[in-house]
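**Tokenised fold:**
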Amino acid sequence: MSAATAADAPIVVERLVKRFGAFTAVDGISFRIDRGEIVGFLGPNGAGKSTTIRMLCGLLRPTAGEARVAGFDVARESERVREHIGYMSQKFSLYTDLTVAENLRFFGGIYRVPAALLAERMRFVIEMAGLTGREEALVGTLAGGWKQRLALGCAILHRPPILFLDEPTSGVDPESRRRFWDLIHNLSSGGITVLVSTHYMDEAEYCDRIALINRGRLVAFDTPAAMKRDFPGGELLVLECDVLGAAFAALEAAPGVRDVAAFGNTLHLLVEDREGAIAALPGYLADKGVAVARIEPVAPTFEDIFVQLVGRKEAA
């Protein structure tokens, strides 16, 4: 990896591999992230997201490949890497038996925030997290959304240029998730580079670019708009009917239907010819005892995109 390449972007990854014995958790992934960019690491649990982030934070040594974060090699200069990043782990990492203010002072010491700056930084975090007036509350008594925003605040007390967030919105309510993403966008607008992992496919919409990962391999890396525009494999329809299971089984063998997936109380169909399918499938299903209530075109979700891209990779 050339010095010029490393200087171009805060995060540069080339053919990164991590093995645990015979198991390969991360399998030769490559990507780069630019300054101020929000990149979402999307994939199911066990896909390799957390392992990749831990390598980029200098917490795990790669088995093979290279990565530079803030210009430093993650294998040889892990201490320097950690000086330039903020990290919010998947598991809630604050001390629940300490108050909000005590946690902030503790992490300020860990990150070596100068004493002259700590009070101002603490005020910023408390306001950002919506915890004004709760400075002396025990963290263990706070609701999940407040804990989450406080943990983010602790990770940025030292004003790092790069932020790694590992499943930060797992287990919190939708409103708290939305507020948390607002905070991430505010940080990005100030030039902070953010890599955030999630298994919530809808959160892809909040990112500048998406890295889809499955079984340790990078399936795709592009903007949300480009992934939707280039949706692979055909045209997508949504179908609502009275007997979902019977419809699913029948449609797997239907002419012109390439794929069927359950999506809540509806089915998503990947078809060769949209208009032909809309005309033919209600009759096809009626012959099999299934009444169609609705069939119409639908924009692909990132769950649809992920399923199709993974299927293509595994078939290749």
Remarks:
- Confidence is low (pLDDT under 50) at residues 1-6.
- Residues 26 and 216 are 4 Å apart (CA to CA).
- The longest strand covers residues 23-33.
- The chain has eleven helices and 14 strands.
